[in-house]
Amino acid sequence: MNHQLSIPLQIGGGDHNAYLVSRPDRDFTEQELALARLLQPILTLLALHFGIAQSNSGASLDGSAHDLTAREMTIVTLLSQGLTAEGLARRLSISPRTVGKHLEHIYRKLDVRDRLMAVQTAHELGLLTATAANFRFNDTEHDRP
After folding, report:
1. What pLDDT sits at residue 74?
2. What share of residues in the chain are helix, strand, coil (percent, to 5)?
3. How far apart, in whole angstroms, are the C-alpha atoms of residue 45 and residue 138?
4. Burial class (CB in 10 A: 0-12, 13-18, 19+), 93
5. Domain 70-143 carries which CATH code?
6. How far apart are the C-alpha atoms of 39 and 50, rounded to whole Å?
7. Where are the domains of the chain?
8. Phi/psi of residue 20, nearest 5 degrees
9. Contact criterion met (CB below 8 Å) for 112 and 121
10. How many CB atoms lie under 10 A from the CB of residue 5?
11. Rounded-to-integer distance, Cα 107 and Cα 100, Å
């Protein structure tokens, strides 16, 4: 018997994309399933960042209706974790002014006025899942002043 493990990408929209892991010899252990659950938001963000996730229509699945870029999706995800503009700048190794420009574009595209509304709207549109919002980028040295 062939054992398969599907890791769906958690991206809003009608299309479904997933990574499939298959092996012929034995089923997946609980530890391997737990690892897959931890990898799911990482794989989703990587697919969005590198434009791997594409719908059948060719539109990006990272918010195509609102035309959010992968970087903007990363910023919305980090906003949902409560990072300030300064924290975002340190985390992403960009200037606070660049963060401000990204926020301007996000607000315009989502038709909102502030970061709270941006995160709430992203959740409502399915652009930001609970798992992705809770995913912490493991890059703590950029969080230090």
Report:
1. 87
2. 50, 10, 40
3. 13
4. exposed
5. 1.10.10.10
6. 16
7. 3-49, 70-143
8. -120, 125
9. yes
10. 15
11. 10
CA distance 9 to 131: 11
Q: Where does residue 143 rank: exposed (0-12), middle (13-18), buried (19+ CB within 10 A)?
A: exposed
Locate tokens 């503009």: which residue? 85
For residue range 116-127, list pLDDT tens digits in order.
Answer: 999 888 877 777
pLDDT of residue 99: 95
DSSP 15-83: ---EEEEEESS-PPPHHHHHHHHHHHHHHHHHHHHTT--B-TTS-BTTTTTTT--HHHHHHHHHHTTT-
The model scores a pTM over 0.70: no
Neighbouring-strand partners of residue 60: 54
pLDDT at 42: 76
